[in-house]
Amino acid sequence: MAQTDTIWRSSTFDNFVTNLPYIMIKGQEDTPPDMVRGLFTKRPWNPVQGDRVSFDSYSLPQYAQRSDGENSTAHLMSIGEGDTLTMKQVEYSARFLYTHRMDTFDKEDVARQFAKTIVGGINNIQDLEMTHKLLTYAEATTYTPRGKNYSVDWKCADDQALASASHTAGGVTFSTEYTTAGKLSGSTITAMEQQAREDHVNHLGEPVDIDMNTLIITKNNSMIKKAFELFGTPKDPATANNTMNIFNTQWNKKVVVLNRAQIDTDGKTFLTTDTYKYRYALMDSRYLENFQYQVSDAPKIQLKDTDIDTVMKVILGLSYCAFATVQPQGYIIHRQNVTEPTVTD
Question: Which class does domain 20-58+82-339 fall in?
């Protein structure tokens, strides 16, 4: 009994427990959520909803119309009801064991690092899946999460993959794929944007205004260099006479580099084929409502009892999150027949 009392009075364990709030904050600071979350609209969580969340879409009409006279009835403009995806929040978790050996030999720093790693690891796996949804596996209709032997539904509300030529809205079919062979360049970006402008419609079947102001790329040096050549200089870097660079002046586009876009679902395999290295997408940020996520509980650490003789406590990290691409208007991807972009020396 005396030995047990000595163990539980251990300054190592007491310090660890006392510092848990600080450890969680440091874990968030050291491994914050990735930029991919800025491409989704965050939905607030209402505890009344429980673990279910409904991601909705709708469309506002584009045009009014003339009145027939002074006493005529004004044209009725109605909201176009879109689609709804009802999802269950997914539990993301990790744990490590705070052992008697760890406590006896004063390895508090090791325990702190483990705890911070749990917080970061939960953020990382959520970001990895959201990255796969938007870019790496945008063409997939099902998805196998890390370490699992089952697949989950990966489709938009119209039962199509995010990257598909068969999306429908308002009875009209449109595409989110640019299939012409090529590479990241000013001409392909222009062609992709034009395709979306002539193709994308809302739930009322009306053409939507498109301004692809966001370029989404992998963390590949050739892609990064080309993207900033395209958007980062006032003059065109590809011409000898330094023609005005319209991407830098008129359209004011931004670049989002997805850190985990070339990492496979297992979290360790690097995807090296051209279709993964050099794929990219354009997005109109005004349509971020089409891509939504909800976190009911940010990563938190809990202490759990255990009946393992050599273990004092189980250190458990938990978070609940759901995300969806409800509708794909304002998004187009180039993933087929892509090659390395041409960059200047």
Answer: alpha beta
